[in-house]
Amino acid sequence: NVEDLEHNIIREALKLLNIRKGVEIYYMADIPLGSAGIGLGSSSGLAVGVLNALYAFKGQHVSAERLAQDAYKIEHEILKHPVGKQDQYMTAYGGFNFLCFNRDESVFVDPIICGKETKEKLNKKLLLFYTGITRVSSDILAEQQKGTRDKMDFLNKMVGLTKDLAHSLSRNDLTRFGEILHEGWMYKKELASGVSNFAIDGYYEKARRAGALGGKVLGAGGGGFLVLYCEEEHHDNVRKSLADLKECDFSFEPQGSKIIYVSD
After folding, report:
1. Chain centroid to CA 235: how far?
2. Which of these, 195, 108, 211, lies nearest to 158 by C-alpha position?
3. What pLDDT, on a 0 to 100 scale, did the predictor assign at position 33?
4. How far apart (Å, rounded) are the C-alpha atoms in residues 81 and 142?
5. Which residues, including other chains, have CB under 8 Å from residue 55's CB and lie 6 or more apart?
6. I want to staple 212 with a disulfide (CB 3.0 to 4.6 A). Which of 6, 36, 136, 230 is the partner?
7. For 10-46, how does the pLDDT look when each residue is reduced to its tens digit (9 = 90+)?
8. What secondary structure letter does DSSP report for 77?
9. Which residues, 6+ apart, have CB-to-CB distance to 103 below 8 Å?
């Protein structure tokens, strides 16, 4: 019985598409550390991926927009998680995009057009470390939502930074990338008490002293992964300063959720 499934996202995806029997679902993650609360959008990634597979199971091909909307409906409207829409849309679409969340609940997805060289340089300048700290993102997001009215000044500044960053990328200019990341992280810490903590602040300051220009904790904050922008000549110093953390290799994904195999 679908109602008896304990996995909330898979249960609600099956119900949404009215699939009641005849299917087995397996899922795997490439993230070796693999638990929830690490800030990589894994719950939304799972929702989008499962929906995509279930639509294919029914013989239907749907758009990235539909996948993102359905995933958001499951997470926010049905399961009542205090999430935004960015993870679902980025998983469904992939690539470099500037997302605009409109008052009428629509989302504009505008590709950021920049040179292949710029993307390659950016990938090489970014370092990713796992802090070993997990957290319940819904707690941080709930506090953030409650204080939204009082934090509008910080939120408006963060929106402005996203526009600056998109403009820099479209001009193939990475000069301000690290500085903008740093400014954004400073504003983000003002949104809720759990966004950072003593340990994370310590790691971040060590990295900055070792040569990193800026960075941020991914996701809601409070733990998970720390991304840093750093010129390559300072990489070794930054790695030494964060020797207690696990570094993770990554590369940019040009495509969103895909069906890669269909059996007869």
Report:
1. 24
2. 195
3. 46
4. 9
5. 17, 61, 62, 67
6. 230
7. 999 999 999 998 899 999 887 754 455 677 888 899 9
8. I
9. none
